[in-house]
């Protein structure tokens, strides 16, 4: 009896083993197939990411070509050639399937969208067993070109003579604390700024009057700020009543002084007052003193000066990305210097610096005008001797301008960028023509020669008497400039965007 039961159990175990063997035999090929598919899909995902990056760079380059060749009836051919060049330089065997143009409200002058549809055949590993040697990867990249010519003021950095951000961070060794400097700082400076000026932080001026005239003047209607309170906007002030006794000297300088309480007597219930006088920028009204600028009367929304694809510096940001995706030979041929820490693979990471991996202070660069006057040579690259008109670094720039560049065209200018550091311009030789851009640091102008163009910094400091700042939009002057500006009436910006926008109509 027991023997019979044992035999039945053995037979049952054998049957279970047989079932497991059959199950394993069936599942092994399935697991093998799934692993193969996962591998091929992983390869496709990597290739799609690379293709998307290459397509983004190609469509941006095509957009800039469209802007530069705005008046060329054959500009679409030039755009296509540019896209092919950039796509093939970034990825092997990339193919352009089609390029689609769309105009805002069916009107090119209002805005243009260019979409690049790209493809790459990825060599399969596993699916080759089933006759699929190549697996296609498809992506779409779209850029938007803003329409219309540039006018003074607006939402791009090129439309301003000076923009001050929130104020650069500085360290107080006495208190051991970090603090924000004023956005605009004028020390020992008598200056008349020609062109729009905007600040999102406070303004420091040594005093209102020097040599019988107001220290800092702007043209009427050219000053704007996102600060609505005088006490917050003007960082330097003094408290006294003497000015209000002797208003015949400098009348108008004290019209907007604030009456403030200095002391209260709890016994008598009486108050003592003085007048708070702010050191302000003035509007030029034809007099030596000008007219007080009152914060509440000059409000404008804050300007996003960060290097990104959506703010006031979107055009310059996209150009930096474009330059980073150029080959070293292309950059050299176009007079573009990018610091060694910046390249196509990490340009966005350095610009955003979200994890504080990069520090602008870790990289210092000295710039000197090349002996032939056509551009800067960059230290420590003295052996190169290549003259550069465009310099982009992450750290500090010290610029020694002893002579002016030789202008080849009406739009010839210089672009100097420090992504996280400071820019010091020692312009003691001649005028500086171009753009100074330090969105996280300070632009310090120490020379007394004119600056013509745009100055953008988290803080902007001027410390030399007699310096002048004159606005000029170099990027849209003449028939194009350094970095691919456009002609008259051409779009003022190029940036990546989503592929869908119902306000844009497909063009044949």
Task: Describe the 3D structure.
With 508 residues, this protein is of the alpha/beta class. The protein has three domains: 2-149 and 500-506, no CATH class; 163-297, no CATH class; 314-451 and 470-479, no CATH class. Helix content is 22%, strand content 32%. The protein has seven helices and 31 strands. The chain has helices at residues 2-68, 75-90, 230-233, 242-245, 314-324, 328-333, 347-352; strands at 95-104, 111-123, 134-146, 162-164, 169-172, 177-180, 184-186, 191-194, 197-199, 203-205, 209-210, 213-214, 216-218, 223-225, 237-239, 258-265, 270-278, 282-283, 291-292, 336-338, 364-369, 376-379, 390-393, 396-401, 414-418, 423-427, 432-445, 451-462, 469-471, 494-497, 504-506. The protein has a 19-stranded mixed sheet that branches. It has a five-stranded antiparallel sheet with strand order 30-3-2-1-31. It has a three-stranded antiparallel sheet with strand order 15-17-16, with no helix packed on it. A hairpin with a 4-residue loop joins strand 16 (258-265) and strand 17 (270-278). Helix 1 packs across helix 2 (75-90). The longest helix has 67 residues, at 2-68. It is elongated and about 105 Å long.
């Amino acid at each position: 009896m027991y023997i019979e039961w044992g035999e039945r159990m053995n037979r049952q175990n054998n049957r279970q083993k047989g079932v497991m063997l059959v199950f394993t035999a069936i599942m092994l090929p399935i697991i093998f197939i799934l692993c193969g598919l996962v591998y091929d899909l992983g390869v496709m995902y990597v290739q799609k990411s690379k293709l998307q990056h290459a397509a983004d760079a190609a469509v941006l380059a095509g957009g800039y070509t469209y802007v530069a060749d705005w008046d060329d009836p054959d500009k679409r051919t030039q755009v296509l050639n540019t896209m092919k060049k950039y796509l093939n330089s970034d990825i092997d065997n990339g193919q352009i399937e089609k390029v689609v143009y769309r105009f805002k409200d069916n009107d090119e002058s209002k805005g243009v969208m260019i979409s690049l549809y790209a493809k790459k055949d990825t060599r399969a590993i596993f699916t080759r067993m089933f006759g699929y040697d190549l697996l296609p990867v498809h992506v779409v990249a779209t850029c938007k070109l803003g329409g219309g010519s540039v006018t003074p003021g607006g939402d791009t950095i090129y439309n301003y003579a000076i923009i001050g951000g929130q104020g650069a961070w500085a360290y107080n060794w006495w208190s051991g604390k970090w603090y924000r400097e004023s956005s605009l700082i004028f020390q020992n400076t008598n200056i008349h700024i020609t062109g729009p000026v905007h600040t999102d932080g406070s303004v420091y001026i040594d005093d209102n009057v020097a040599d019988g005239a107001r220290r800092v003047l702007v043209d009427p209607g050219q000053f704007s700020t996102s600060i609505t309170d005088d006490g917050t906007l003007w960082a330097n002030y003094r408290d006294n009543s003497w000015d209000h006794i002797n208003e015949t000297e400098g009348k108008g300088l004290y019209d907007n002084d604030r009456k403030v309480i200095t002391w209260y007597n709890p016994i008598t219930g009486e108050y003592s007052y003085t007048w708070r006088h702010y050191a302000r920028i003035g509007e030029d009204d034809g007099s030596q003193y000008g007219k007080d600028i009152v914060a509440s009367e000059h409000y404008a929304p804050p300007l996003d000066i960060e290097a990104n694809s959506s703010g006031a510096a979107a055009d310059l940001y996209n150009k930096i990305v474009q330059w980073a995706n150029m080959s070293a030979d292309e950059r050299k041929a176009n007079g573009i210097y990018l610091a060694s820490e910046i390249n196509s693979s990490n340009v966005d990471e350095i610009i955003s610096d979200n994890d504080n991996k990069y520090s602008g202070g870790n990289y210092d660069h000295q710039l000197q005008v090349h002996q032939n006057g056509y551009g800067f040579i960059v230290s420590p690259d003295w052996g190169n001797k290549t003259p550069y008109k465009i310099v982009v670094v992450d750290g500090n720039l010290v610029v020694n301008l002893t002579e002016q560049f030789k202008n080849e065209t009406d739009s010839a200018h210089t672009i100097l960028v420090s992504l996280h550091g400071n820019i010091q311009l020692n312009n003691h030789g001649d005028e500086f023509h171009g753009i100074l851009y330090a969105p996280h640091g300070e632009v310090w102008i120490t020379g007394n020669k004119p600056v013509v163009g745009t100055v953008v910094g988290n803080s902007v400091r001027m410390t030399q008497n007699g310096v002048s700042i004159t606005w000029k939009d170099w990027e849209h002057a003449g028939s194009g400039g350094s970095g691919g500006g456009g002609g008259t009436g051409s779009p003022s910006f190029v940036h990546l965007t989503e592929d869908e926008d119902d306000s844009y109509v497909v063009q044949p």
